[in-house]
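About this split. The held-out portion is used to measure sequence recovery: a designer receives only the structure tokens and must propose an amino acid at every position. Recovery is the fraction of positions where the proposal matches the reference. Here is one held-out target exactly as it appears in the evaluation file.
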């Protein structure tokens, strides 16, 4: 809910003109009333209408400034005549009227051009920019007519007002790293895979990785879903990275590295958050030393995500792209509290990105780590992947064994599918909720591939007790649950079914319910604030902790999250840190970052929107996968990616849903 003077946002019709403040009707949407902690917004204008928070807003100048933003964009695009030439006409005529030099014919021409653009522009940005302009001309016609008849500039034409604009898209908004998804898809469509990769690396340095193991929340908010099926966004992302690697090119960085600033930062952890922090700080000319406890780089993606999902040679290319910018890596370096005290003196800032590498317990009776056969998911995956990827340690052989994993997320999926490949006789996944939820926690593909490979899923179940003989696991007592509707209409509750308990003989119980962070490296006297989940507390915007100069991102800040979430946090943190170390320790957000937060709060995607002007029924392309009888006996990559023909066909389905949003304050 937002307090507005006037709003046409998403079809609402609110006009509080002449009403007392306490009688104002509120908007149903989370509109940006407050631009930042120092300034209130005067107006918000975007693809689906306009909202005014201040009665004194100069609506004529507001429309002119919005048209100016589109002219800049349309000149850069130039893919269709209505969009390109229409954008120029919109701005020229709007500014002519705002200057006090327009005519009524100009206003009628504006309306005509706007309606033509709405129906004939090639992309959504051309279709939607006229929408709020027509709203303003309809509801505030008198303001436009006054400028025309009196031949005087609009009331605040020369006033100092800030107009902050940002281009977004529903998929980009949904992506935690805010990747320019339409941009990299356009690169694929144009067979400019280098441009595609550059578009990705603007905010996502791990293109190989997130082109393979991302849960793709962007696809849940793809406008194409409203028409038929979402674009296969993740599968298209890997194409630019594979092109760079397969052809032996140098790295396609999104910008030239800036000159050395003389500043340096310590990054603790070389997983996705640490790598991302180092990458973007290095681009800004800030030297980074990355300290990694493991003997290998890459964090949990390297030792946790199996080879069949994320080939290490591809991930290493992402890591080498970071190294290419001059980042210094130190492995086998477990950072201690004493080292942190020294880092605070030696570096201009410190990023803690240590992840969460302690497996949590199932919380059942007789749960004791010393029981033979009780094996934490992190330890199990470490042993599997250090051997399969690096030849370190010993191979995992589960021949003839029964493995039971408790969980319902990506880590548990990795455990059970690795167990299949380690030749286990039986593999069970025990999960308290249902199939629908486990798919939502992971992906449709991941779940169904596991089923194909022979994993048996036991839903609405939980381990009550571990049964051992002389500290050797023998079996598990399992409770069965059912979902009982909430009479108040809330979420159905799980209730134990009395008399439905059963037993499973098991050689291994592998808890993969969640992970916690090892934060012994933080000196006690620093008294860094923690969350109720025992992770490092930040405000979730600039990622500085309660101790000045110490930042945190990724799993150790939020708790176990996806790779793309960790990257998104670290990208923002790196941006803040780059300014922090160069401006005397001031923590600031850019206008682009402030707008990013406003738009995510508003939600760019509208699942109720009815899509017109596009042909439905174009089938979504599906990548080829290895046959189950081939893949379950080895660690070959399962998903083989698109052919060029598939890639072009899928890229052509993209509706290029760019939008322009703007705040006046």
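Reference sequence for scoring:
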């Amino acid at each position: 809910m937002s307090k507005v003077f006037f709003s046409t946002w998403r079809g609402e019709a609110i006009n509080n003109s002449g009403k007392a403040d306490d009688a104002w009707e509120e908007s149903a949407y989370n509109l940006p009333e407050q631009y930042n902690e120092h300034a209130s917004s005067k107006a918000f204008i975007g693809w689906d209408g306009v909202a005014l928070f201040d009665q004194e807003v100069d609506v004529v100048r507001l429309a002119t400034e919005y048209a100016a933003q589109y002219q800049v964009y349309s000149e850069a695009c130039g893919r269709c005549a209505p969009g390109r030439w229409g954008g120029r006409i919109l701005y020229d005529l709007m500014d002519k009227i705002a200057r006090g030099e327009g005519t009524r014919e100009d206003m009628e021409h504006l309306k005509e051009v706007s309606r033509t653009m709405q129906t004939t522009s090639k992309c959504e940005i051309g279709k939607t920019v006229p929408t709020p302009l027509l709203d303003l001309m309809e509801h505030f016609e008198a303001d436009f007519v006054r400028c025309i008849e009196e031949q005087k500039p609009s009331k605040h034409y020369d006033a100092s007002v800030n107009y902050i604009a940002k281009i977004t898209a529903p998929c980009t908004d949904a992506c935690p790293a805010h990747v320019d998804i339409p941009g990299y898809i356009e690169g694929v469509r144009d067979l400019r895979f280098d441009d595609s990769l550059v578009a990705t690396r603007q905010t996502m340095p791990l293109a190989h990785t997130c082109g393979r193991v991302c849960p793709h929340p962007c696809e849940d908010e793809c406008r194409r879903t409203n028409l038929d099926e979402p674009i296969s966004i993740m599968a298209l992302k890997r194409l630019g990275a594979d092109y760079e690697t397969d052809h032996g090119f140098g790295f396609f960085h999104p910008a030239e590295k800036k000159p050395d600033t003389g500043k340096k930062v310590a990054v603790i952890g070389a997983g996705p958050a640490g790598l991302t922090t180092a990458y973007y700080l290095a681009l800004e000319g800030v030297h980074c030393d990355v300290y990694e406890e493991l003997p290998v780089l890459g964090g949990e993606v390297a030792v946790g995500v199996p080879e069949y999902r994320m080939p290490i040679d591809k991930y290493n290319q992402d890591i080498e792209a970071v190294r290419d910018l001059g980042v210094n890596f130190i492995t086998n370096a477990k950072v201690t509290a004493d080292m942190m005290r020294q880092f605070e003196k030696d570096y201009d800032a410190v990023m803690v990105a240590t992840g969460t590498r302690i497996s949590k317990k199932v919380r059942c009776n007789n749960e004791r780590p010393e029981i033979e056969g009780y094996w934490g998911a992190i330890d199990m995956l470490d042993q599997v992947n250090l051997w399969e990827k690096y030849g370190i340690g010993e191979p995992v052989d589960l021949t003839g064994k029964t493995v039971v994993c408790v969980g319902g997320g990506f880590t548990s999926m990795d455990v059970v599918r690795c167990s299949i490949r380690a030749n286990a006789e039986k593999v069970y996944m025990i999960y308290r909720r249902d199939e629908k939820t486990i798919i939502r926690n992971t992906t449709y593909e991941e779940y169904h591939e596991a089923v194909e490979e022979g994993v048996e899923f036991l839903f609405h179940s939980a381990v009550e007790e571990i049964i051992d003989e002389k500290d050797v696991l023998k079996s598990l007592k399992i409770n069965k649950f059912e979902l009982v509707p909430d009479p108040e209409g809330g979420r159905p509750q799980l209730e134990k079914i009395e008399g439905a308990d059963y037993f499973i003989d098991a050689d291994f119980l592998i808890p993969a319910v969640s992970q916690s962070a090892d934060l012994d490296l933080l000196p006690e006297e620093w008294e860094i604030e923690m969350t109720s989940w025992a992770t490092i507390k930040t405000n979730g915007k600039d990622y500085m902790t309660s101790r000045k100069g110490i930042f945190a991102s990724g799993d150790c800040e939020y708790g176990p999250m996806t790779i793309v979430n960790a990257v998104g946090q670290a990208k923002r943190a790196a941006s803040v840190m780059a300014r922090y170390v160069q401006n005397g320790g001031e923590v600031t957000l850019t206008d682009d970052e402030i707008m990013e937060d406003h738009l995510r709060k508003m939600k760019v995607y509208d699942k109720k929107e009815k899509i017109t002007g596009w042909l439905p029924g174009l089938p979504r392309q599906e990548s080829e996968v290895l046959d189950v009888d081939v893949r379950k006996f080895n660690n070959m990559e399962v998903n083989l990616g698109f052919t060029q023909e598939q890639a072009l066909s899928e890229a052509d389905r993209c509706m290029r849903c760019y939008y322009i949003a703007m705040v006046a304050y």
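Annotator remark: The longest helix spans residues 59-77.
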